[in-house]
Amino acid sequence: MIFAEPRLCDVSVGTGMLKNGDGHYRKTYRDLTGLYADAPAFDQILARQADEVAYEVTSYTPGAKTSDMIMGVTRMEPGRVGREYYLTRGHIHANGDRPEVYYTLAGRGIMQMESPDGEVRLIEMGPQQICYVPPFWIHRSVNIGTGDLVMFFSYPADSGQDYGIIERSGGMRVRIMEDGRGGWVAEDNPAWTNRSTEEVTAILKNAGAAV
Ligand code: S6P
Ligand code: ZN
Q1: Ligand 1 binding site (Cβ under 6 Å of any ligand atom)
Q2: CATH of span 11-206
Q3: Partner of 149 for a Cys bridge, out of 107, 118, 172, 182, CB 3.0 to 4.6 A?
Q4: How do residues 105-128 score in pLDDT, each as one tens digit?
């Protein structure tokens, strides 16, 4: 048969996992070294729980083409490093013009987005809310709740992930911090530097051939 086989997957909201997928990886706190602003607070977490899972991703990848859609679930623990809420590493899609959809199944989160030229968008999400991440936006999830943040996602299978874009600019432009009243506030990241026109142009050029 020349047509791909349909697939049914179950989502376990309780465990934050996609069942009957074909991919699973975990990120421990040790893996997140260097992400957070408060290094002494992060060292304390490392001393206690370096090899515990901070977040994990279960997924199904039907193929490798633009027209194949990866789908999966990210489950992230709640907590903070000092005042900064737990987050995923974040990336831009290596083929930058590939979008993504995130659907919150449980918990409260922020989809933190940054355009290559430094615009910031923060979309707060709760259960049954969907965020569309347009092409070219750097994105990461932040858990601002008291329980696991569980999000379904789907994106073209040839998107790829470039994590270096965040490292090269000294992190993302803002950090999501506890505001002293149990809520959150976005604070400027003093280490952040804007991307050059050349880098932005290269990102736009490297959009990949959507065939
Ligand atoms: C991939 C998609 C998600 C994230 C996952 C973990 O394009 O956005 O599957 O990979 O939420 O986040 P991160 O930042 O470690 O890739
Ligand atoms: Zn992505």
Answers
A1: 57, 72, 74, 88-91, 100, 140-141, 153, 155, 159, 161
A2: 2.60.120.10
A3: 107
A4: 999 999 999 999 999 999 999 999
